Input
Amino acid sequence: MTRASGPLAAALEHRTVVLDGGLSNQLADQGCDLSGALWSGRVLAERPDQVEAAHTAYARAGAEVLITASYQVDYAAFARHGHDRAATTDLLRRSVELADRAARAVAHEVWVAASVGPYGATLADGSEYRGRYGLAVRDLAAFHRPRIEALVAAGPDVLALETVPDTDEAEALLGLLAGTGVPAWLSYTVEAGRTRAGQDLAGAFALAAQVPEIVAVGVNCCAPADVLPALTAAAAVTDKPLLAYPNDGSVWDAPTRTWRAPDHPEPWPVAAWQRAGAQLVGGCCRVGPDRIRGLAAAA
Output
């Protein structure tokens, strides 16, 4: 049993690839404590076996891409909790290794995507759903550079530049990747047809259109109803494969650090997403292995 033998970009040329679901909800279902500012990063540091088990649950459900537990792992945030630079670099490496082990535990091909979460995620105050942090593009690039370098050194198949709330952060991330040859996808979090910061989606997606390192663009950590309008906007400005991995429809309440579930579950018109160009489809927060199993069966 081996990890995927070819580039993810090649697979996307001819078929739909199934992503995993929400790592945090699966860890919670396994009894892990995600309280505190480090969130799933705390479990990565204290219970790596549980992270591997969560990845394995998704792989066994049919996921073909496992997204690492590095979303909220950042040097400054972890330094505030007693982790020196070497220890944080080791955690970033560990996140890739754990997903890799889970990928090798199943018979089908599985790619490992190293999660590069937004700056706001490390603040643990819901800022990733607002963006516009008051930082210049160069400051955001300086923040992301060391964690990207550490993740790339660990050898994932692709970087997941995910839950990006605004074009400033996208510009910083794309600038770091341009010319490196490191494959990545760019995924915005959106609401009501715009980025979380209120920017036009066509312009946001156009930023990645001419960056060869970007193998797919799309949306994640949003309501299912926001997916199709965003994919339509993306398809108008780029011919890259599209991706969609929304939440289950719940809304994050940052002050209480809880999810508010919808009164009525939102439908997932996956076939419509695919017709719009989605080649990578999966789930984000509160989407578990059962939903991924259903997607894999229908893919």
